[in-house]
């Protein structure tokens, strides 16, 4: 059966993203028992393929109904005991949110904040680690509010040099599937994400992968985990069981969404994951060059070295506001996102280029359509790039 989704405006926000026909069709799979042989095989394969995306052989995936926010709860409830010290690297809105979650479970949180458009430096991280014995450190790999990309490998290296007992937690909600992540090689203890961004699946799945060290801590901890649904002790038998072809019940999994995830992961892992990272980098560079060189607009990240490959955050030029641009883009059939970071909320907008938009340049022209629309709407708003006007 040939399935094609209905015509719709092009969704280029930093998640949810465009979903392929195959993934959307898999999401409409007929009802089946979550204990059936066919679903057990599907779920088990999805667990194994998720490891491939993170380049880990030893990590333990947890694929659970929820959003990326549930990943924070899993980290906090399983790894934090009351009074534990946590260091949160803050490069935007979502660093603050992760800190709030950790505090809700009794952590004493220190935030290492960077100015808007930047992320904490190696020196700042090293200094912070020498002052306090932190149970864990969190890194927002791509902060969706600013488009800033943190150097997760560097952070982990510093942690293991100075405070090797500290757990390294990567919030990869806006990076998994788009940015390079090597969980084992970089010695990451937890990588968490959600289905609706770089993985190209409808919203509704929280995906977390824990290192052997993190799992061992949870299995050996003496105090009770302060969550029921988020407890890894409840989910471990489920994940291990499905992977071994023996379904185990704790809570009913979202059958259709997991079928959709399976379809997406099958496509992603059909080629070396490094090829996907390269395509995202190429698409990002091309689009960012257009924004800078042709439109003459400034981006939120202060340095291209820490600009995300899955999205672009763009300042409005002087005299132009969101009301001049965003509604006009919508009239062109292009859906973008407004500002989110409270310090600059009305000064910028955000465009996502993950999944199909970045990878499929043969049958789709997503970013070319966005470029054409941006040329049109900025011209209609009276904006002229003075650098190329002569």
UniProtKB/TrEMBL annotation:
One of its GO terms (cellular component) is peroxisome. GO terms for biological process: glycine biosynthetic process, by transamination of glyoxylate. The lineage of its organism: Eukaryota, Metazoa, Spiralia, Gnathifera, Rotifera. One of its GO terms (molecular function) is alanine-glyoxylate transaminase activity. Its EC number is 2.6.1.44. It catalyses: glyoxylate + L-alanine = glycine + pyruvate. The keyword Transferase applies. Keywords: Aminotransferase, Pyridoxal phosphate, Transferase. The keyword Chaperone does not apply. Signal peptide: none annotated. Its cofactor is pyridoxal 5'-phosphate. This is Alanine--glyoxylate aminotransferase. It holds the Pfam family Aminotran_5. It comes from the Eukaryota. Residues 26-341 form the Aminotransferase class V domain. Belongs to the class-V pyridoxal-phosphate-dependent aminotransferase family. Substrate binds at residue 350. The modification N6-(pyridoxal phosphate)lysine is found at residue 197. It is an enzyme of class 2 (transferase).
């Amino acid at each position: 059966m040939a399935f094609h989704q209905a015509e719709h405006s092009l969704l280029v926000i930093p998640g949810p993203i465009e979903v392929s026909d195959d993934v959307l069709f898999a999401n409409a799979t007929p009802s089946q028992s979550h204990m059936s042989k066919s679903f057990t095989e599907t779920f088990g394969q999805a667990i194994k393929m998720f490891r491939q995306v993170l380049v880990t052989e030893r990590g333990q995936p947890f694929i659970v109904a929820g959003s990326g926010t549930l990943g924070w709860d899993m980290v906090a409830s399983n790894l934090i005991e009351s009074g534990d010290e946590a260091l949160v690297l803050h490069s935007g809105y979502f660093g603050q949110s992760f800190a709030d979650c950790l505090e809700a479970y009794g952590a004493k949180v220190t935030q290492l904040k960077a100015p808007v458009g930047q992320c904490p430096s190696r020196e700042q991280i090293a200094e912070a680690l020498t002052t306090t014995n932190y149970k864990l450190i969190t890194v927002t790999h791509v902060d969706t509010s600013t488009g800033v990309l943190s150097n997760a490998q560097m952070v982990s290296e510093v942690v293991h040099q100075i405070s090797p007992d500290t757990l390294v937690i990567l919030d990869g909600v806006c990076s998994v599937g788009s940015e390079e992540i090597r969980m084992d090689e970089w010695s990451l203890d937890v990588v968490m994400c959600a289905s609706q961004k770089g993985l190209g699946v409808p919203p509704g799945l929280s995906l977390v992968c824990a290192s052997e060290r993190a799992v061992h801590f949870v299995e050996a901890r003496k105090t009770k985990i302060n969550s029921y649904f988020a407890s890894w002790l409840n989910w471990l038998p489920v994940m291990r069981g499905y992977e071994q072809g023996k379904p185990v019940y704790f809570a009913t999994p979202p059958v259709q969404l997991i079928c959709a995830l399976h379809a997406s992961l099958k496509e992603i892992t059909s080629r070396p994951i490094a090829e996907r990272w390269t395509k995202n980098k190429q698409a990002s560079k091309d689009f960012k060059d257009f924004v800078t060189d042709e439109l003459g607009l400034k981006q939120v990240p202060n340095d291209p070295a820490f600009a995300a490959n899955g999205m672009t955050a763009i300042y409005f030029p002087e005299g132009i506001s969101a009301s001049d641009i965003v509604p006009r883009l919508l009239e062109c059939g292009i859906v973008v996102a407004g500002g989110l970071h409270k310090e600059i909320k009305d000064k910028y907008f955000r465009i996502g280029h993950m999944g199909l938009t970045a990878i499929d340049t043969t049958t789709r022209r997503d970013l070319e359509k966005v470029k054409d629309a941006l040329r049109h709407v900025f011209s209609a708003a009276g904006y002229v790039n003075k650098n190329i006007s002569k």
